[in-house]
Amino acid sequence: MEKSTEEYEIAFNGLREHPFFKNIDENILNTLLKAMTLKSWEKGQEFYSINDTLRRFHIILKGRVKVYQIDPTTTREFTLYILAENDVFDVITLLDGHKHTKLFKTLDTVTVLNVPMEMARKWIQIHPEINKTLMPYLASRMRSLETNLTNNVLSDIPTRLAKLILQNIDKSSNELQLIHNLTNDEIASLIGSTRAVVNRHLQRLKKEGIIEMQRRHTVVKDIEALIKKIENRF
Q1: pLDDT digit string (tens) for 135-178?
Q2: Between the CA of residue 95 and those of 89, 103, 131, 153, what are the distances in Å?
Q3: Could you tell me the superkingdom of the organism this chain comes from (predicted)?
């Protein structure tokens, strides 16, 4: 990437604010950026193939990406997790060197910085500052997956939905974050349900005054009531 371009400035500022790189010397950042490429995809694109996971490592600067799998027999879709600004992928391939057989799709217009996978591995070895932030990040992702797995196995659909909403509340505004403006199909894919079932339970929460929905914009009006629903069912 050429240093004198607008693209370079966007990339540098994005990297400077990223938790993995914020404590790295500016000269080292400039060296890293020379090997990086700034890339964007429009909403709704399946942009990252299984073979791509072996080739390049991505740092999200803007937008959301869902990581999911489809049952080839039933064509049913299940979303493992949603990645957003400051997330990276594919960490699994970065660590073990094997293909990651999951699908990736943009939920918004997405902007990333990407770098050859082998170079990303070398950075981790050379710069311990990156490694110190990578390990807590991995732990956080693993805890999130454990929580989702537990919810989807042990909880009924209304409880899964209530927990998903509670986990994604912006405490300053009571609005949903990360899952905001998702379709009911997308929400159903996160909790192992169907659009019709999700819609029915959302309407019930709305009728009870727990949430307010306006054109995919959802605000939680009564957090205590939402918590009580979870406690009474789980």
Answers
A1: 889 999 999 989 988 988 999 999 999 999 999 998 888 889 89
A2: 11, 18, 12, 28
A3: Bacteria
